[in-house]
Amino acid sequence: MKLNAKELRDVKEEDIAEKLKTLKRQPIYFILENIYDTYNIGGLFRLADALAIEKIYICGESEIPPNSKIKKASIGTYKVVPWEYCKSASEAVADLRSKIKDQRSKIKIIAVEQAKNSVPYTKADYTSPVALILGNETYGITEETLKLVDTIVEIPMWGINKSLNVIVSAAIVSYFAVSSSFK
Predict the structure, then answer these.
(1) Measured CA distances, 139 to 57, 61, 166, 174 (Å)
(2) Domain limits of the chain?
(3) For the chain, percent helix, then strand, then coil, each to nearest 5?
(4) CA-CA distances (angstroms) from residue 49 to 14, 149, 157, 159, 160?
(5) What is the pLDDT of residues 6-31, one digit of tens each?
(6) % of the chain exceeding 90 in pLDDT
(7) Scanning 17, 40, 46, 108, which has the fewest C-beta atoms within 10 Å of its C-beta?
(8) What is the CATH number of domain 13-181?
């Protein structure tokens, strides 16, 4: 079942509940830390749906659905992507690590951030399951959260601007992660 934008905006969760139960989700999670722009949150829901990721954790000072701007930007995908609010990204990381304990499938926590010890996003190990932490549009990911991650990945920038929009960064890294896991 594929729905266009109008259908997604109008769909009732109970009308697609059976389809969602059979949807094969990618073992990828988004952890959104203090993302302030509701349009970015909505766009990340659209991206999460496009990739059929497992879940979004919305953390900290971020707005949550059914905020009207998130509803509009997500074109209703907030109804089809599992999500949960956590007080902090560290709470989300702890939740994921407690749920995914098997050493064979230990979750990799990867921050998408510019840092001294970051590696190019193309060099990271995305063997699933993977959680991508995405940070605040101005300040990035907090130092406290960076201490919890297994890897920090960075997207190279060659122009004057220091960074990309959080949705663009998430799209680049998450599509690469999904395509890497199919090799």
Answers:
(1) 19, 13, 12, 21
(2) 13-181
(3) 40, 20, 40
(4) 17, 24, 27, 31, 32
(5) 777 777 777 676 777 778 899 999 99
(6) 75
(7) 17
(8) 3.40.1280.10
